[in-house]
Amino acid sequence: MESLKSSFLQSFPLNTLNPHQKTRKPNKPPPPKILCCLKPDPWSLSSGNPKNLDKPKPKSKNPKNPLPDDNARRIIKGKATYLSVLRRNQGSRAQTPKWIKRTPEQMVQYLEDDRNGHLYGRHVVAAIKRVRSTSGLREGEYDMREVMCSFVTKLSFREMCVVLKEQKSWRQVRDFFAWMKLQLSYRPSVIAYTIVLRAYGQVGKIKLAEETFLEMLEAGCEPDEVACGTMLCSYARWGRHKAMLSFYSAVQERNILPSIPVFNFMLSSLQKKSLHKDVIYLWKNMVELGVGPNHFTYTVVISSLVKAGMADEAYKTFHEMKNLGFVPEESTYSLLISLSSKNGEKDKALNLYEDMRAHGLVPSNFTCASLLALYYRTADYAKACSLFTEMEKYGVIADEVIYGLLIRIYGKLGFYEDALRTYSEIERSGRLSDEKTYATMAQVHLSFRNFEKALDVMEQMKRNNISFSRFSCIVLLQCYVVKSDLAGAENAYQALSETGLPDATSCKDMLNLYLRLGLPEKAKAFVDEIRKDGIEFDEELFLTAVKVYCKAGMLREVEQFIEEVTVMEAFKNVPFVQAFFTVMNGSTGNENWFVTSDQSGAVAVELMLTLCLASRNEIKTMKEKIKLMLQTRIGESVANRMISNFAKEGDMLTTVYLYELLMKLGCEIEDSARACAISMYGKQKKLKRAKEVFMAVEGSATDRKVLYSSMIDAYVMCGREQDAYLFYKEETTKGHDFGAVSISKLVKALTSCGKYREAEEVISNSFHENLELDTVAYNTCIKAMLEAGKLRSAISIYERMISLKIPPSIQTYNTMISVYGRGRNLEKVVEMFNMAQGMGLALDEKTYTNMICHYGKAGKVNEASALFSKMQREGIKPGQMSYNVLINVYAADGLYHEAEKLLLSMRMNDTSPDSLTYLAVIRAYAKGSKYSEAEKVIDTMQKGAISPSCAHFNLVLSGYTKSGLMGEADRVYQKIFSVGLNPNLESKSIMLRGYLDLGHVKEGIDFFERECRFISPDRFILSAAVHLYRSAKMDLEAEKILNSMNDLGVLFLNNLEVGSRTKTI
């Protein structure tokens, strides 16, 4: 390229021309004249150029020389008219010839050349075909001089250029051009070289093109704008941008101005490779040279200006484009709208959109997505919804990005069901492929505390082989943190670390998880790790890290950490850092400073107290420092709050120590702190101490309800539910209000220990006193009556709840479904379920399972199965309990095929079957009289390391005995021993019933004497033995058993009959 540029500049020096000599303009070839149509018409005589171009044309419009054919003039006029119409219809680029006048001699020659209806003469067409015929031969298999030997001296220079232009292969162009230069009629011309340059440029033979261009210069041909433009377009086409710009610089120095299409070609090529700086440079050069840009130029330049971050220049160019009368394309508007949206220029973005709509342009998906993102960031959700409606109106099909934004907007608005529906629509349409959509839906689930569904979405993403980005790893980590799944969270954090240094928020989430799970050692190690990795701390992460060190009593690490942070620029003006530094150095006496330091001072004192309490037994000075801080007003307030915090964390020793220290120092203690102390004493089984705390404040308490709640807790934790009830009676007699929380706790405690009468009395008294109970309290009361078997009372409590307009929760409806289900009122059960749906409550697995169970009890197998499928469609993953319930429903009707399919589905969904699952499957086979298959299920259990119980074998035993297969039954009975079990009373009863009903007297007596002699007295077994002995005429033995039954008070069953089933058969 450098040699080309050098030759280009030096071959014809600009300053060597004689100033007095008239500058000769380069010979420009005349515009090509296409002299006939490509397809001849049936009445055409001729179209083409005269052979002798130098011959003068006729002087007059109507030459007097007669045509050789008297009818020729009519044909010529008709042909001219036809071609004129054809040009108008096809536009300016129509390949139709302009009609010319010919002398009679020219016409005769034209006819002799057989050019009638052809673009070129016969010999030219033959030459074109001859050269093209070599395209099938390999390099070196032909010699162009031999191929074209018959055309020597027959082709003019112009005709040789035509043959050259009509070649399709660059090799034929190269070889013919070499032959062409050997002909006598050849003269060096920029036209021929341009044709060759174009042929090379089209196939990417840039080196050959450069060599040809140099040859042209050496031949003395002055390159024009067409030749230079051809070279520039070749460079642009094949991405040789460095060479292109270098060549363009040489063109500029020669004062050659490329055409606007060439500029557009270069601009477009540069932009495709994201070379926006070069696009802008070329654009500015165009403006300086005064080249008039067209619509395409503006479109490309504005796009590059936007992508290069030159917003002001982009807007300026956009307005310039409009002022020149060009209507911008939708893509141009879209880029500027997106730019305005990202810059937060809402008004500018909306004005651009309105201007676009005024021109009748339909917005694209990208434009709509930019506007939706803008509306989301500015919380203008109403306009976002209206834009989506407008998209539907104009037929703009929403893509996955737009649906993802809608999901995010629905999540912000709290429209959980709408977000779920939108996500389902994307999934059904098969357009779910973007990881951001999955992550967004998972975030919506998390915002509604539904971490299981959030994890299901992320698992679905993994199953679909969609790679996790940094954003997805962060969302996955949040899911595991909310779920408190430590292993999952650590794996997600590791995956996040592989994408780069984790962000401060993710680190904070991990630390809080360790603290929540009570893993201080892991928390300390994690803080050390992120400090070592150089994670950039924000204020929240720093606060959490200091909290970890303080809880562990690591004074030295805290001091070192504070020293590191205080020198950091980002933390110099952070109030908390200054406050903690002040407290750590013992300057807690200046309380006015803490008052003006917002909440930072209180947090600093709290953390310092935490550090001192954690290290009070190791560092002697810490106890004194605690006392100093507690004697300040801010320390006293913080300590009261810390007592509650320690109690929630279950730190009994610290809670009690801090409470007693406050008492000792005579500090003011809040009722909430006293309540926590009472609860802690209850956990320590120190009921007497708890009573003392309560009695000390009973007369002066401002919040009695919290104290009552704690006392109930203390009594219950000490196993003194009756005393809790008596405490309630005593306090209510004094006219004190226990509050909803205390009532709920007391009722639950009394119900749990079976004191239903007392629980009912508490409920009745609360209603009689018109206490304001909340939803949780009503739920507890309804459940208490359900467990007591008082269904009418439960219904009455629910009706009272509704009449008082207390909002029911999903737990309310779950309990009421159980209440009506126990009363066999399926209609009301369905009504409760539908009400829960109508209220817009998120139905959980428990609700669905409860409904499936009651459908099964009512024999509605199809309804139960349909509801199970609906639960799965709603995105609720069935658990072990749900599968077991539905398998039991199938088992009740003997639908073993369905039970087996459900067992298979259970395994495929990574839900492990348990002993109850297999018991239900065995029941299904036994009900369907498939006893051998039922027995195989027991073998499958054993292979899965699940030990069968007697209940599993008893179902198989019962099936065999009912079928009269006592031999098989005895074999299964013996199998019970082989698995390490002893047959239970039911096993023996089943076997004895079989022998009795089938009339196998001898075998029955043998079984009784062998298996049933030393078991606890059972009415059926002893009665059956009496009947068997009597049937065998062994009256003495029968009489002994009867006397034994009388002595034990066991009633004899007279209705048993030996061989009852044999008689039936």
Task: Give a short overview.
With 1065 residues, this protein is mainly α.
Any chance you could write out the topology, listing elements then pairs?
Blueprint: H1 2-10, H2 72-90, H3 104-112, H4 122-132, H5 144-147, H6 157-165, H7 170-180, H8 190-203, H9 206-218, H10 225-237, H11 241-253, H12 260-272, H13 276-289, H14 295-307, H15 311-323, H16 330-342, H17 346-358, H18 365-377, H19 381-393, H20 400-413, H21 416-429, H22 435-447, H23 451-463, H24 470-483, H25 486-498, H26 504-516, H27 520-533, H28 539-551, H29 555-566, H30 575-584, H31 591-595, H32 600-614, H33 621-630, H34 633-648, H35 652-664, H36 671-683, H37 687-697, H38 704-717, H39 721-733, H40 739-752, H41 756-768, H42 775-787, H43 791-803, H44 810-822, H45 826-838, H46 845-857, H47 861-873, H48 880-892, H49 896-908, H50 915-927, H51 931-943, H52 950-962, H53 966-978, H54 985-998, H55 1001-1011, H56 1019-1031, H57 1035-1048, H58 1060-1064
The share of residues in helices is 55-70%
Mean pLDDT: 83
CATH superfamily of the domain at 878-983: Tetratricopeptide repeat domain
Report the sheet with the most strands, covering strand number, pairing sense and barrel closure.
none
Please give the count of helices: 58
Structural class: mainly alpha
CATH topology of the domain at 878-983: Serine Threonine Protein Phosphatase 5, Tetratricopeptide repeat
Radius of gyration: 48 Å
Distance from N terminus to C terminus (CA atoms, Å) equals 108 Å
Low-confidence stretches: 9-29, 31-65, 590-597
At the first level of CATH, what is the class of the domain at 878-983? Mainly Alpha
Strand content: under 5%
CATH architecture of the domain at 878-983: Alpha Horseshoe
What general outline do the C-alpha atoms trace?
extended
Count every beta strand, where a strand is a DSSP E run of 2 or more residues: 0
Domain PROP1-like PPR: 278-414
Family: Belongs to the PPR family. P subfamily.
Biased composition (Polar residues): 1-20
PPR repeats: 189-223, 224-258, 294-328, 329-363, 364-398, 399-433, 434-468, 503-537, 774-808, 809-843, 844-878, 879-913, 914-948, 949-983
